[in-house]
Design a protein that fits this description.
heterodimer, A: 135 residues, alpha/beta, disordered C terminus, B: 452 residues, 5-stranded antiparallel β-sheet, elongated
């Protein structure tokens, strides 16, 4: 399954790495953003199938809020990629959606999370981890 | 015992002589003789009482000390009547004396003890101590209460203790609730805001105790209050500085993981330019080692004390991660982890984690060639100052020429230097498969995981 993806990540090296890995998986990367407001604008403009979202971003808006708005606006699914798991867990308790991949991440983990959310098997919002079946 | 005193005719019976401690040679003939044996401080009172009784015919009731010839003193009570002659005139006075020295001493001791206790309670300044009657009205008030609440004893006696409650507590019926709970349970303790006379609020811990007399009858209540405002402020400061420290630690773990991601991304980008499979494997292994460290930071900031990793959880994650990375079917090679209740601090967790990463990787890559199935067991135990880390498989075993001391692979070299870093050693057992034991000294903090 190939998806059209928007990457939201404030670390340029990680942005580049994500882009390469996603493209290697067969997805196409429509664009990249490093701020929340920029992410929302690009999501509206590019209409991606999926957003890969860091939680900590440049600027006042964090990734959780940006994801919230994007989903409210156009229902785009989001996979979080973050080193900041506690913040994510707290927000997750407040009914935040979508799977989360913890940094430093493996390509297999990222791919698993993407497949899950695009096929709807993660609609319960549960987070994939190493206990998930490998693919 | 008795004395009869008539004009110019006083008689002492034997009993009275005994009370006065008189020897046979001591003569008491006149009333003056009698008075002379009374303590000088009491003498005038006794003379006045006798005179009043004689003149007015009223009942005699007087207490006095006698000075005995041997120098000792005794307290006596003398009660008597005036006898009237046929002309209606006082004829003589008859009375009876009883030695009340012991009773007097007991009364004095009691009074002294009560006085001492009263002064003690009164003088306590750090606690407000006061009593209430069974209607909740204040009946006693110490200096501490005056200092804490601002009311003088005169102002507060007779008023309800609810004046010290803040209006919202009064409206909520807290004063009555406190009394009824003390009535029911004997005592009630709580912490709440209270009100001074000038309207300022202070945080106070208090205990209200029901007072019963010896027959078990309720006599009222005693309240002890302590101003805890400063302590509360100090506690709040401590809590907030702990929260700051916790936030800072979490931030550090986050940044470490973020930086590890940047390093991983750099390696991943670099490996994209490599076509040679062997070289790519080297990159993959380097990334796995970085992840091993990243996972420890992740579990650290998820741990309650931010300092020790739940190592059983960590090893399970590591094993599953490697199995998944190497695409191993779990029904073919099972990894069993046992580090129950082990918590490791960062300085031990990272070397242990890296060692296990290398050894599981080795087993997965070389232990089960040609689709062989089997099992890898990882255990960590710490008992009485010594830890034992063990990684064993039932695979084909390492070739005989491979030794830890003389390792040519980076993986085994890392195991060797990391074991040394732990202050431990490496034991090899090649009897069945491969089994590597690393005993190392415990740091004492490998405490059990708190039950959640």
């Amino acid at each position: 399954m190939n998806a059209r993806i928007l990457i939201v990540e404030d670390e340029s090296i990680v942005q580049l790495d994500l882009r390469r890995r996603l493209e290697r998986m067969g997805h196409s990367v429509l664009g990249m953003a490093s701020r929340g407001d920029e992410a929302i604008a690009k999501a509206v403009e590019l209409k991606p199938d999926l957003v890969i979202m860091d939680v900590r971003l440049e600027g006042p808006m964090d990734g959780i809020e940006a994801a919230h708005r994007i989903r409210a606006e156009q229902g785009t699914p989001v996979v979080y990629v973050t080193a900041y798991a506690p913040m994510f867990e707290e927000a997750a308790q407040q009914d935040v959606f979508g799977p989360c991949v913890s940094k430093p991440f493996r390509t297999t983990e990222l791919q698993l999370a993407i497949t899950r959310i695009l096929t709807g098997s993660a609609s319960d919002g549960s987070m994939p981890n190493e206990s998930s079946p490998s693919i | 015992v008795g004395v009869e005193i008539a004009p110019n005719k006083e008689t002492f019976d034997d009993g009275l002589r005994q009370l006065f401690g008189l020897r046979p040679e001591d003569e008491v003939r006149t009333i003056e003789d009698f008075y002379s044996r009374i303590h000088p401080n009491d003498r005038e009172d006794v003379m006045a009482a006798f005179e009043r009784t004689r003149r007015e015919g009223i009942h005699l009731d007087t207490e006095f000390r006698v000075l005995r010839p041997d120098g000792t003193q005794r307290w006596l009570i003398d009660q008597g009547e005036v006898l009237i002659d046929e002309n209606g005139k006082p004829e003589r006075l008859t009375g009876a004396c009883v030695d009340i020295t012991e009773r007097k001493q007991a009364q004095d001791a009691l009074r002294e003890s009560e006085e001492r206790f009263r002064l003690f309670v009164k003088g306590v300044r750090d606690y407000a101590l006061f009593q209430m009657n069974d209607h909740g009205q204040i009946v006693s008030w110490n200096d501490g209460a005056e200092r804490m609440l601002g009311y003088t004893e005169d102002e507060i006696i007779g008023r309800s203790a609810s004046v010290s409650f803040v209006p919202e507590d009064v409206a909520a019926g807290q004063p009555e609730r406190e009394i009824s709970e003390a009535l029911r349970n004997g005592r009630v303790a709580d912490e709440r805001w209270h009100l001074k006379k000038d309207g300022t609020r202070f945080w106070c811990s208090g205990v209200l105790t029901r007072i019963d007399d010896e027959e078990g009858k309720m006599r009222g209540f005693a309240k002890v209050m302590r101003d805890e405002t400063e302590r509360r402020q100090a506690r709040e400061q401590l809590t907030s500085s702990l929260a700051e420290k916790e936030a800072l630690l979490k931030e550090i773990h986050h940044r470490v993981k973020n930086n590890l991601q940047v390093i991983t991304s750099l390696l991943s980008l670099q490996s994209d330019t490599v076509d040679d499979e062997h070289t790519r494997t080297m990159f993959d292994e380097a990334v796995n080692r970085i992840r091993t460290i990243g996972d420890i930071h992740e579990l650290l900031y998820r741990s309650p004390d931010l300092a020790r990793v739940d190592f059983n959880l960590y090893l399970s994650r590591l094993a599953k991660s490697l199995i998944s990375f190497y695409g191993i079917d779990r029904s073919r090679i099972a990894v069993r982890v046992d580090a129950q209740d082990m918590k490791l601090e960062l300085s031990k967790a990272i070397p242990c984690g890296l060692i296990v990463n290398e050894l599981i990787t080795n087993s997965l890559k070389h232990g089960f060639p040609g689709g062989r199935s089997g099992e890898i067991r990882v255990t960590l135990k710490c008992e009485s100052g010594a830890c034992l880390l063990e990684v064993a498989d039932n695979g084909v075993g390492l070739p005989d020429q491979v030794t830890v001391e003389d390792a040519t692979s980076l993986g085994l070299k890392l195991v060797s230097v990391l074991a040394e870093q732990l202050g431990g050693e490496i034991r090899f057992d090649r009897n069945v498969g491969t089994r590597i034991e690393i005993p190392f000294p415990a740091s004492g903090s490998e405490k059990q995981v708190e039950p959640s």
